[in-house]
């Protein structure tokens, strides 16, 4: 009998990394096998009895590491005849990384394979002396633990290159000993934090719980778990003394006290998990003339670009060209004047002046300058300043406060569209100001109002995308820009995204 196990994989390299693990399992069961990769799917054919195939599937569930890039899809029996010459009985390559069971034993003091790197880590040296045995490795890591407790920085060379570890000097980059430590210190829910434990060991930007902000000297950190076996073993040894995390800093590779080389290396990846998918926060190092050049490679779709540094774009990519669907250019003075000319809005301004004279004075001060632009996030900076959330108009206070909100929704802010004489559509910024200032007057808490500003934007974009998808018969939407890397907004955007459309990400989230 022949069965095929189908796996979803990111690319052919991922398939090649995992295939030796599958082949080794098949060899251990004395089954014949072969594998094929095509279109992000790895097919592993197993020639064996139903009982052996069931045993293979059971073993697979026990030892296959949880991975961002490789996951089981389905199993089915093949009834049509296959070329017998395709099948093999021996594996030509050995696995490059420990399977889930081996890794568990590597960390278990009571296991026979405790601290045994299984030949997967080479040239391990401490203070220039080669380490040959598991006992020597434990002794060296125990020494390293003592040095970490007394010294400011300990330089090591890991599977991701040189870095310094510190228990005394806080850094935004933190390696936690395990998932429970991450959940204790940060606001990450388990469904997001679990990705930290995947084989690829990505990083996730996480907001800290209030009680830990002073310890970490930050409101947010880049959280990760140990990304290779030796780091994991060191963190386990630290954990025995109640040390749950270690700060990491950049370092010179020549200074490393501990040095080792792993056969399997995982590049550093920053991700933003959300309900439907995992967003890769990958930046292109290529220099682009502007954001339009960066976006020109997108497929036939509606394109949404929200970046902290560059103009906001809502575009239609059709027939090889990009067309603007909505202008987001704003002029602060024009918006302020429109408020003064409107009867309801002018009354609101007078009430705002009476209740918040200092904040109203800020509006008058800003009106002396020609403030404006085409970046929605620049407008949010000014809005946060006007609402009294920050002491200058260059801080992203609205976004920071929204992250602190414990409620799922905020008040509805008016995002309306203006049509000019040529029927071009633009966002009505005075309406946004009017409703936000009205809620501030009504005493809505800062965090709740800030979330409302983002929540209402996400709902507006969802409706706008749906209308334009119908008008232009488009089925796909491509998102890009580093603002989508902010989980507080990505979650809201995905929540309001039209269910019948396909959401795609650009090849790169943004560019340097």
Task: Describe how the helices and strands are arranged.
Elements: E1 2-9, H1 12-28, E2 32-38, E3 41-47, H2 50-63, E4 70-78, H3 100-107, E5 121-126, E6 129-130, H4 134-150, E7 154-158, E8 161-166, E9 173-176, H5 179-185, H6 190-193, E10 203-207, H7 213-216, E11 220-224, H8 229-239, E12 245-250, E13 258-262, E14 270-273, E15 278-280, E16 283-284, H9 291-295, E17 301-305, E18 313-318, E19 321-326, E20 330-331, H10 332-341, H11 343-355, H12 357-366, E21 372-373, H13 376-386, H14 397-404, E22 417-419, E23 425-427, H15 429-441, H16 446-472, E24 476-480, H17 487-496, E25 502-505, E26 510-511
Parallel strand pairs: 7-13, 9-11, 10-14, 16-26, 17-24, 24-25
Antiparallel strand pairs: 1-3, 1-4, 2-3, 5-6, 5-13, 7-8, 8-12, 9-12, 10-11, 14-15, 17-18, 18-19, 20-21, 22-23
Helix pairs in contact: 4-8, 10-11, 10-15, 11-12, 11-15, 14-16, 16-17
Number of DSSP-assigned strands: 26
> The CATH topology of the largest domain, please?
Nucleotidyltransferase, domain 5
Helix content: 25-40%
Query: Could you say which overall geometry the principal axes of the C-alpha atoms support?
Result: globular
| CATH architecture grouping of the largest domain | 2-Layer Sandwich
Order of adjacent strands in the largest pleated sheet: 6-5-13-7-8-12-9-11-10-14-15
Q: Which consecutive residue ranges, at least 5 long each, have pLDDT under 50?
A: none
The CATH superfamily of the largest domain turns out to be ATPase, nucleotide binding domain
CATH class of the largest domain: Alpha Beta
The N- and C-terminal alpha carbons lie at a distance of: 53 Å
Radius of gyration: 27 Å
Overall pLDDT metric? 95
Strand coverage percent: 15-25%
How many helices? 17
Protein name: Protein hydE
């Amino acid at each position: 009998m022949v069965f095929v196990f189908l796996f979803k994989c990111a690319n052919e390299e991922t398939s090649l990394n995992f295939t030796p693990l599958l082949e080794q399992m098949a060899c251990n069961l004395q089954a014949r096998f072969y594998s094929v990769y095509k279109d992000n799917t790895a097919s592993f054919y197993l020639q064996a009895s139903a009982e052996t195939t069931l045993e293979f599937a059971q073993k697979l569930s026990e030892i296959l590491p949880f991975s961002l890039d490789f996951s089981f899809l389905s199993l089915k029996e093949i009834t049509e005849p296959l070329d017998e010459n395709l099948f093999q009985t021996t594996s030509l390559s050995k696995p490059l990384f420990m399977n889930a069971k081996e890794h568990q034993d590597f960390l278990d003091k009571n296991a026979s394979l405790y601290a045994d790197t299984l030949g997967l880590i080479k040239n391990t040296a401490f203070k220039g002396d080669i380490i040959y045995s598991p006992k020597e490795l434990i002794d060296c890591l125990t020494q390293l633990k003592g040095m970490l407790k007394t010294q400011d920085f300990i330089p090591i060379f890991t599977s991701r290159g040189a870095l310094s570890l510190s228990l005394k000097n806080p850094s935004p980059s933190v390696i936690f000993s395990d998932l429970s430590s991450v959940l204790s210190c940060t606001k990450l829910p388990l469904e997001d934090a679990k990705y930290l434990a995947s084989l690829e060991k990505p990083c996730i930007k996480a907001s800290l719980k209030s009680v830990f902000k002073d310890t970490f000297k930050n409101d947010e950190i880049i959280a990760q778990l140990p990304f290779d076996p030796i780091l994991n073993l060191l963190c386990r040894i630290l954990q025995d003394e109640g040390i749950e995390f270690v700060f990491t800093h950049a370092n010179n590779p020549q200074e490393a006290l501990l040095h080792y080389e792993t056969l399997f290396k995982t590049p550093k990846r920053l991700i933003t998990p959300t309900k439907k998918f995992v967003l890769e926060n990958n930046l292109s190092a290529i220099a682009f003339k502007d954001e339009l050049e960066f976006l020109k490679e997108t497929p036939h779709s509606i394109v949404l670009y929200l970046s902290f540094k560059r103009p906001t774009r809502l575009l239609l990519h059709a027939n090889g060209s990009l067309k603007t669907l909505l202008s987001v250019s704003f002029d602060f003075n024009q918006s302020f004047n429109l408020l003064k000319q409107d009867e309801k809005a002018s009354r609101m301004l007078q009430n705002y002046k009476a209740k918040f004279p200092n904040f109203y004075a800020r509006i008058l001060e800003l009106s002396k300058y020609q403030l404006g632009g085409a970046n929605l996030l620049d407008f949010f900076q000014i809005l946060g300043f006007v609402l009294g959330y920050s002491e200058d108009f260059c801080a992203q206070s609205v976004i920071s406060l929204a992250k602190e909100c414990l409620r799922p929704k905020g008040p509805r802010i008016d995002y309306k569209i203006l049509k000019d004489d040529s029927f071009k559509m633009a966002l009505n910024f005075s309406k946004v100001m009017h409703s936000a200032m009205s809620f501030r007057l009504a005493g809505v808490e800062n965090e709740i109002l800030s979330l409302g500003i983002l929540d209402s934007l996400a709902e507006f974009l969802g409706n706008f995308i749906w209308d334009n998808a119908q008008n232009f018969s488009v089925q796909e939407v491509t998102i890009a820009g580093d603002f989508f890397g902010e989980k507080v907004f990505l979650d809201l955007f995905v929540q309001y995204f039209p269910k019948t459309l396909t959401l795609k990400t650009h090849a790169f989230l943004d560019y340097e």
